[in-house]
Amino acid sequence: MQTVGGLQIVVGESFLISRSTGRHWFPTLARITPERLLVKVWCTEDAIDPATTASAYCSTLDGGLTWSTPVAQRDIGHSWVRRQAGDCLALSYCTLYKSESVCQGGIGRSADGLEYRWSTGTVDMAPLKLGHWGKSGAASVVFARSVLETTDGRLLATMYGRFEGDSLDRSVLVQSADGGDTWRYLSTLGYDAQAGGEGLNEPCVVRLADGELLCVMRNLSGKPMWSARSTDDGKTWSPARPMQPEALSVFADLCLMSNGVLACSSGRPGCRIMFSPDGRGEVWVAPTTVFAGPSTCYTAISEVAPGKLLYVHDVVPTGWDQPRPDVFQEIRGVFITVGREP
């Protein structure tokens, strides 16, 4: 156990969720209930190519103690939500270019979170104008991580990409009023032509206890992430600003825990987690390294019991080189308990 910033943090032993001698990396988590979760896994090259996209998911019915074998999917994506009515919605990662401001993506619907039926949804980015990105007609924008449902039933989803006139990546928020069939541009989460690196991408948004939205975005591997806030349900955002130097780096995941602590997993270098004791994300305690071995450092977290997080990450001994038949790529989990000092 370590005590940091008034918090008592216990990182448990690592355990295997799934493995493959092929591509098996970039995990994300979807929580249907505290006991039933999905770990979604990218099973193809690190590229934007809708024609070759392959993914899979493993499910658990006991909070992460045991896991199913992987279930293959074409592009289950990183973006997922369990709606207030109980049904689940998944969004593809890649989108297809249709016109200067319109793209299309896959919309997956499920009653139980396990079996999905897929249709095509439309995203209208006007007044922003799209370009082409990657192969096979991919548009210059992808769905990334967060889907939130508002009290009036609208859906908000995070995306990122590069639009006409942008010199670097931009993170945006889109909304749907019809359950995910059609989406429209709502706001820019973060764009700064002077940010350097790739720009501001891989956004993650969480709703705080007072209803405010907090967004955390990647800038570049090994560099601090940036953050922005909204007090009007995502219509407008504060100017994006760099976070503290230790707040590194790729594809952050955010979880407001039941004890009021805000958790943020991220990494590169290393797979890390850090906490904001006041639940606001304005001050973070020093990060804890969960795994320091070979990994993409893409991580995900979910609270599976009060004060207990499931943290997932990949292990990729061959890195971005081609997989080898004698080496496994793995998805692993770690339970982390977080409490306040007495």
Elements, N to C (H/E)? EEEEEEEEEEEEEEEEEEEEEEEEEE
Indicate the CATH architecture of the domain at 77-193. 5 Propeller
Question: Which residue ranges are poorly predicted, with pLDDT under 50 across at least 5 consecutive positions?
Answer: none
CATH superfamily of the domain at 77-193: Glycosyl hydrolase domain, family 43
Secondary structure: elements and pairs:
Blueprint: E1 2-4, E2 7-11, E3 15-20, E4 25-31, E5 37-42, E6 55-60, E7 71-73, E8 79-82, E9 88-99, E10 102-110, E11 117-124, E12 141-149, E13 155-161, E14 170-176, E15 182-190, E16 201-207, E17 213-218, E18 226-230, E19 241-242, E20 253-256, E21 262-267, E22 271-276, E23 288-291, E24 299-305, E25 308-315, E26 329-340
Parallel strand pairs: 11-15
Antiparallel strand pairs: 1-2, 2-26, 3-26, 4-5, 5-6, 6-7, 8-9, 9-10, 10-11, 12-13, 13-14, 14-15, 16-17, 17-18, 18-19, 20-21, 21-22, 22-23, 24-25, 25-26
Summarize this structure briefly.
The protein is mostly beta strands and 342 residues long. Helix content is 0%, strand content 49%.
